[in-house]
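Prompt: For my understanding, could you write out one protein's sequence and backbone structure tokens?
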Amino acid sequence: MAACANSTASLPPSLLKPPDPRIGRLERFFRRYNCPAPHYVSEYLRAADRFGLDYRLLPALSVRETQCGRTEVRHNRWGYHSGRQGFASIEAGIEFVARVLSQSRLYRDKPLHKKLFIYNPRPAYPGEVDALMHQIE
């Protein structure tokens, strides 16, 4: 018994931490919509955590706007700037859109529903994205 306790104590903390449940949720969501791989789950989670956003927001936007990348143009899976904005990579797009939704004066300090209405002022849009976000849980 003591040998087991000692071997566990010598493991790095990252191996003792349980896996982030958001990873599996996002992977299932992307598979459900037959999203093209890679799914960029780590990048979505990192950006959400860094900018204080709901981790489900950008994945839901990607499904709503470009069928999670199947119709994207210039690495813009989120329909940002009505799809006219391009990014150097998907990772750069995730970072940019997350930063804008979090820090831009247009979106900063607004509740999610208001952010979504600003993002796309169609009355049904916030509800559509919200429904996709709930599918992740």
Remarks:
- The two ends are 39 Å apart (CA to CA).
